[in-house]
Amino acid sequence: MFTPTLFAKAFLFEDRMFMASQSASNDGQQPSAALPPAMAEIKSQSVEKVLEEMNRLPLFMTTLDETDGQGNENPGLEALKALAYEGTRAEVAENFRQQGNDCARVKQWADAKEFYDKAIAALRAPPSAPDPEAGIQVIEVELSEEEEAKKESEIEEACFVNRALCNLEKKNYRSCIQDCASTLRLNPKNIKALYRSSLACLTLDKLPEAADACGRGLALDSSNASLQKLSTKIAARQTHLDALEKSRREREERAASEKATLELALKRRRILTRSTDQAPDLEDAAVKLVRPLDPNSELSFPVLLLYPTHSQSDFIKTFSEKERLDQHLDYIFPLPWDSENEYTLDGVEAYMETIVGGLIKAGKKMALGKILGSGKTEVVDGLIRINILPRAKAAEWIEDFKRRRTT
Questions:
Q1: Total tally of structural domains belonging to the chain
Q2: Which of 182, 215, 218, 349 could serve as a FRET partner for 228 with CA atoms 20 to 30 Å apart?
């Protein structure tokens, strides 16, 4: 409750402000009239202290202060809170619903949702018994249970469908759908619930559910412009998703056909392949056919040229099965790091590992397809590796290779 002293402080604050303005205009002269008794006890308090105590009065609050300044509850504020829950459940819920509506009108969706939460909670709360120690006289009012139940049902329906709008605006689409379902359990013909549920389902790409809710709404009101527009959006979205799905299936079918064709092409050429758990990242480089669905078309391979004695390498993204190694070495040489000019077209030899772990000499003037079709080598992880060595150092490297294999 509000105390006379605090009201007196409010007037004292106004009086001090008036005195301050008079002081500025009267060259420092102060009014000589005595303060009323109720205001005398706070005469010595500062303006800041008066404002602090005034802020505890609900009438003058600018910020929420739930204390009385001494660590106890603010009785005035608690009294206002209690007023919100006085009356029948329908009256309490209706009060919260109206406050929620006020917030929704200015698009304060979070606050509106909170009021609708309170309204629904009030409707579902058990009736409270009067406190015998409160000393409050309870006036019993005769209510028609049937009418009261009808009011409660109408308020609950309105709160659920309005809370669905709040959740829709806050992008809480699943909560929106749940609130619409609660609304429709109370009234299966609620157009707003059907519309908002359909819109939320559309946003989540739950198109069958969206179409069902929209269709039910149009069955109730075929001329509803919002539902008609929403139905068009659902149909357009379904058409778009169907097109995407068709395109995805076609890509997968084509990829499967290309893979089968490539396997057939390799098999016909007796080229062996193998995959490991440590495949390198070749980006878009791959074993491929010039015409992916024609096994007789030309094959090409990614090839890694290794210079093991110098720890260098070159990568050839597309090496045709009909091309020879010397054709590529011709434009690669001279090597920028070969200061001793050891790597020349006639001065190098090429070696490839075999499927049993040995080495074969790869002819520089032999087509790559013939080398791979010999059955001695294999394409590992979609990549061919060829070691290039100066002829003078080849024998020493081969011996070292053998030692490493046997240890």
A1: 2
A2: 182
